[in-house]
Amino acid sequence: MEVRLKILYTSLCHTDVYFWEAKRQNPLFPRIYGHEAGGIFESVGEGVTDLKPGDHVLPIFTGECKECAHCKSEESNMCDLLRINTDRGVMLSDGKSRFSIRGQPIYHFLGTSTFSEYTVVHVGCVAKINPLAPLDKVCVISCGISTGLGAMVNVAKPPKGSTVAVFGLGAVGLAAAEGARIAGASRIIGVDLNPNRFQGAKKFGVTEFVNPKDHNKPVQEVIAEMTNGGVDRSVECTGNVDAMISAFECVHDGWGVAVLVGVPHKDAVFKTHPINLLNERTLKGTFFGNYKPRSDIPSVVEKYMNKELEVEKFITHQVPFSEINKAFDYMLKGEGLRCIIRMEE
């Protein structure tokens, strides 16, 4: 059930940086990072029937086996077999790596390892897409853009004309804002501690900005005052537990829905008064925007092809693979959203 992919374009996501820095997780090295990419299906392993050499594909950091209870459920994309596993650096079939150097194994990352001209992945982690879609653009759909977009359109589901708050204006948060724009939200309030992000966020439909540092009271109170009691929907994309609490408490009682996207520190605890729930606010979580990789991601690519979804505005830099360290520099300095890395010089 394995396939070999020729990676043509990959982009750098903050998750790569987080695990490269090896903060607060098991450091597993040597390892090939990268998980947001586009390429061509090159060769097939035993048991694979639905792909052929030459197919254009996006490798995905989570999977869809199509057999387990989660895959058969219309409500879940948390595949029992192939859901994200940040500690596993080997293939499922035999517990071994497909990469090596001088006889020593190099470990996989998120089942994808796209910072490589060739990679081997489980077929359940591959989305076959429209061959006319430009891989140097749609590669960003394989992780961050789908995560934010899906959190908004699949989970928060803002009604047309509603008010929405987005916490965190990185690539994922801006994809959530884009989802709110597509859904027809009337006000999209961006919340971020970095004022430099505000101007660029307008391109993604953000209409107003709140910097929590500018106020001497909790930001949820600020938003409630701005919106006559709270927003209809909020999506949190920072991973900061205080932002999560604010995102929940800033939605309107009676119908407000808050969706958590960011991944918190493993010791973080979410605290809120139960009356906030009893007053008919809803708190939800989502993983990869509730998209099933094989079933749903091809249709997200079609949204781009039909000009419903704009991905170019997420792409701020492009470098050849030999200059991949520049992509890390851009991200560490907060300069830009997505840097496309061309594998062929």
Automatic annotation (TrEMBL):
InterPro entries documented for this protein: ADH-like_C, ADH-like_N, ADH_Zn_CS, GroES-like_sf, NAD(P)-bd_dom_sf
Main location: cytoplasm
Keyword Nuclease in record: no
Top-level taxon of origin: Eukaryota
EC number: 1.1.1.1
Record keywords, A-Z: Cytoplasm, Metal-binding, NAD, Oxidoreductase, Zinc
GO molecular function: alcohol dehydrogenase (NAD+) activity; zinc ion binding
Domain Alcohol dehydrogenase-like C-terminal: 171-302
Transmembrane spans: none
Domain Alcohol dehydrogenase-like N-terminal: residue ranges: 2-129
Catalyzed reactions: a primary alcohol + NAD(+) = an aldehyde + NADH + H(+); a secondary alcohol + NAD(+) = a ketone + NADH + H(+)
EC class: oxidoreductase
Protein's UniProt keywords contain Kinase: no
Cofactors (names): Zn(2+)
GO CC terms of this entry: cytoplasm
Compartment(s) where it occurs, according to its Swiss-Prot or TrEMBL record: Cytoplasm
Family: Belongs to the zinc-containing alcohol dehydrogenase family.
Subunit and partners: Homodimer.
Name recorded for this polypeptide: alcohol dehydrogenase
Organism expressing this protein natively: Eucalyptus grandis
